[in-house]
């Protein structure tokens, strides 16, 4: 059943029916154009440190995978692309692989294909109330040679999914226990409804190393669940929440204000390199993309590389036209108050 559900999720996202009605908030942000940048565009430094490794651009690809056969092809294509470009990769949920004690397309092959980049494992926070703990977390890391483990938060999706996990009591304490005992960095991310500044601060106090805001404006898992609903009532419940969540731009700004020293991943509806630039300006250290490259990832590494190179080129132009020689300067670029 879980395999079927993951495949259905993938089909809905690829069809475009899983897009949120919410706005990311990036359209409300305008950089002040610098007509005399006094830079050589080709010398702009887009590199940054992430999880102890240097990446060539502040990008992370979060894969949305289906059942094992499709997951293997998608992750392979993305891993090759990320290694080629020198950017980070976060895999989809490893729950099936851990429960079935098979790699489900998430094995050591990924690290062989991408030996030099930050690689992040992943499973849902709700699993911590269903028997998962330190042993499962270590297995998730070991099976792909991950540099960190994502614990994803998806309460809205679980709430509108008929077979969803409803018991979310005590999870902050369990995340804290994991963060203190795992021996590897913990990343906490939402899946499209955003993380607020106050919650991010509590997570940081619990020992979480990285916050991925994953705000509203991209994929809506309420819309995905509405599309795969089996009854009109289920669809109506889910459909009411397709614009629910904290806009990505708002979430990044709030988390940075509440957690000045945090490592922040800005994700959720990132469309192009200009959105990446705006996310960096608002306080993100790294910017995540998923649905925008998913179709290419089902086809070949070359398609993923082409899509990401376009984003990187757009980011470079945004830096040039804001007189930003590097990402630190981009984080201080002037904005127009509309």
Automatic annotation (TrEMBL):
Q: Which GO terms describe its cellular component?
A: cytoplasm
Major subcellular location class = cytoplasm
Which Enzyme Commission number(s) are listed?
5.3.3.2
Q: Please write the reaction equations for the catalytic activity of this protein.
A: isopentenyl diphosphate = dimethylallyl diphosphate
- Answer whether the UniProt record assigns the keyword Flavoprotein to this protein: yes
Q: What class of enzyme is it?
A: isomerase
Q: Which InterPro entries match?
A: Aldolase_TIM (IPR013785), FMN-dep_DH (IPR000262), IPdP_isomerase (IPR011179)
Pfam families, alphabetically?
FMN_dh (PF01070)
Q: Which key words are in the record? A: Cytoplasm, Flavoprotein, FMN, Isomerase, Isoprene biosynthesis, Magnesium, Metal-binding, NADP
In which residues is Mg(2+) bound?
A: 158
Query: Any idea where this protein resides?
Result: Cytoplasm
* Gene3D superfamilies named among the record's database cross-references: Aldolase class I (3.20.20.70)
Required cofactors, per record? FMN; NADPH; Mg(2+)
Domain FMN-dependent dehydrogenase span(s) in chain numbering: 18-94, 173-332
GO biological process entries: isoprenoid biosynthetic process
Binding, substrate: 5-6, 93-95, 157
Origin superkingdom: Bacteria
Sites where the protein binds FMN? 62-65, 93, 122, 189, 219, 269-271, 290-291
User: MF terms per GO, please?
Assistant: FMN binding; isopentenyl-diphosphate delta-isomerase activity; magnesium ion binding; NADPH binding; oxidoreductase activity
Positions the record marks as coiled coil are none
Parts of the chain that traverse the membrane: none
Q: Describe the protein's quaternary organization and the partners it interacts with.
A: Homooctamer. Dimer of tetramers.
Annotated family: Belongs to the IPP isomerase type 2 family.
The record describes the protein's role as: Involved in the biosynthesis of isoprenoids. Catalyzes the 1,3-allylic rearrangement of the homoallylic substrate isopentenyl (IPP) to its allylic isomer, dimethylallyl diphosphate (DMAPP).
Name of the protein this chain belongs to:
Isopentenyl-diphosphate delta-isomerase
**Which species does the entry assign this protein to?**
Devosia soli
